[in-house]
């Protein structure tokens, strides 16, 4: 069994409109934009990161805003809902705040004994807030949400699958343990992990396959402390028969990727070196940072990338 994985590192989704994406995650949800850079494989597309003050692993939602991408179609073989942790008693505040910003599909419910507010981001992302009195993480409050209500980081993520058996076994191999069941959803928790230590497997045997597009999760990343731990995880996965990529330098972490039995793309990402490697903490996310191989494109990209504050200026 793998013991090095500590919980979630980040979740990366697809989008279409960079300014709308920036407005929703930084202004509506109050997260800090900790990095604006570009997609390594498509440098004409942003890669935007939102999280707590420093982009602590387990708090970071990231997006690729492809300007002409079609809307995704929900289904099986993908991450279903990305769930954030908020303080106890704060869901009323969030319901009013999200309704005022015309956020769609607002629904209050209770799941696994936790109060929950589900909703959709402007481009269709399935998101939820869960009250968690035990979450002691310090929130980012620089975007207008007070500490009594502000998002702490990820609570969990759900995987929508036709058959959850093989993926559940994989997660157990990755150090997760069965917690409880609720209807067709099986909850697994990584003991002694970071606060983003929960994965729910939603089994939908008759559902159609998902089509990736705007509003879809591209991949979900799990955290390890450092590169040495990552190499140990990679060897264990290879020895078990998974096809795992070589280690890839993503500037702010090192990454490996592999496809799960249910079709979801998993990443294992290091906690090092972090988002302050090329920016002072006080100014994270304020300027465009480019991978070294794309630095020669800076003048073109600064002219062609959509201004992130476009929505506010409109």
UniProtKB/TrEMBL annotation:
Q: Which GO terms describe its molecular function?
A: dioxygenase activity
SUPFAM superfamilies, per the entry:
Glyoxalase/Bleomycin resistance protein/Dihydroxybiphenyl dioxygenase
Q: Where is the signal peptide?
A: none
Q: Which Pfam families match?
A: Glyoxalase
Respond yes or no to whether keyword Oxidoreductase is given for this record: yes
Q: Which UniProt keywords apply?
A: Dioxygenase, Oxidoreductase
**Residue stretches making up the VOC domain:** 7-132, 153-271
Q: Does the keyword Transmembrane apply?
A: no
This protein's name: Dioxygenase
What species is this protein from?
Devosia insulae DS-56
């Amino acid at each position: 069994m793998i013991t090095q994985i500590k919980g979630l590192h980040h979740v990366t989704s697809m989008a279409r409109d960079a300014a709308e994406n920036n407005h929703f995650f930084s202004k509506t949800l109050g997260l800090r934009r900790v990095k604006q850079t570009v997609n390594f494989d498509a440098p004409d597309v942003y890669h935007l990161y939102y999280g707590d003050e420093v982009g602590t692993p387990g708090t970071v939602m990231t997006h690729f805003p492809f300007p002409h991408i079609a809307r995704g179609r929900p289904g099986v073989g993908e991450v279903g809902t990305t769930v954030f942790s908020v303080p106890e008693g704060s869901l009323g505040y969030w319901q009013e705040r999200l309704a005022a910003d015309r956020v769609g599909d607002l629904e209050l419910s209770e799941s696994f004994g936790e109060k929950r507010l589900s909703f959709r981001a402007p481009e269709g992302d399935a998101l939820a807030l869960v009250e968690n009195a035990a979450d002691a993480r310090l929130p980012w409050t620089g975007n207008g949400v007070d500490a009594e209500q502000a998002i702490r980081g990820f609570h969990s993520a759900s995987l929508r699958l036709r058959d959850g058996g093989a993926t559940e076994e994989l997660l157990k191999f990755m150090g997760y343990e069965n917690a409880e069941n609720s209807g067709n959803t099986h909850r697994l928790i990584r003991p002694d992990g970071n606060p983003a230590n929960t994965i729910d497997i939603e089994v939908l045997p008759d559902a159609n396959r998902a089509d990736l597009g705007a509003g879809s999760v591209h991949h979900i990343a799990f955290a390890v402390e450092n590169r040495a731990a990552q190499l140990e995880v990679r060897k264990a996965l290879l020895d078990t028969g998974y096809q795992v990529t070589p280690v890839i330098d993503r500037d702010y972490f090192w990454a490996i990727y592999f496809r799960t039995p249910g079709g979801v793309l998993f990443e294992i990402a290091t906690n090092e070196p972090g988002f302050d490697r090329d920016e002072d903490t006080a100014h994270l996310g304020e300027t465009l940072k480019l991978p070294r191989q794309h630095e020669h494109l800076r003048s073109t990209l600064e002219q062609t990338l959509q201004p992130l504050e476009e929505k506010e200026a409109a």
